[in-house]
Amino acid sequence: MKDLYDKFAYDYDEFGPIEAYLGDEKTFLNKIFSEHGVKNVLDCACGTGQHLLMLAQLGYNVWGSDFSKAMLEVAHKNLHNRGCTIPLEQCDFRFLEQVFEIKFDAIVCLTNSLPHLHTDEDLLTALRSMKNRLSKNGLLILTQGTTHFTLSLPSIEVVVNRPDFSRIFVKENDDRFQTIHILDLFHSAEHLESNQYDIVYRILLDEDYKRLLSQAGFTNIRMYGDYKMNNYDAKSWRLIVVAESLE
Q: For the chain, is the Cβ count within 10 Å smaller at the N or the C terminus?
């Protein structure tokens, strides 16, 4: 696969500081993990380290991996600057067993990461690899902002709007894929620059996850529409999937 973030990684955190994760998300993960006795967690699409920092601060033993070397470079810098040491590995999450010998109580793949894969073959390869690296009764958690509801929203979204910087999403959808054209505009006296990044996601919704996760061997598949554990429905702003590996 091509590294789509080889340049975008260095501006990615213009979304906001990595400490700025939602409190509800933190509470959700901690509740699920506590209920299942989770101690060791792999974030297999760790990006710039936001969730790694959060989970480490909650007291979990955390590992991080990402396909993007650039993302890992930024994650290492972010974590180092906050006095946090977490093992980081460059790894395609279709082939986790090539890098990780140990098994984890939980694996997380968050923030629209899995839909970077576009075919059922690749998606099943990734899900089976994640299952292979889970301990018995281990948990897989997937999250995304693509839902039945958000696919119906206007195609242009201003995601960040500061005096010195704006980030605009322009979205195109068809039956299978969503393309997000990301336009970054730096507009301060010190920094005038514009960049565009184009990310193509496979559109995966609740029934797709149920089918793929079942084929990959997961059980007890649950769908939530928010971090307060309300069930996913046609008006949900988020799709959160929790599945178990009982083998």
A: N
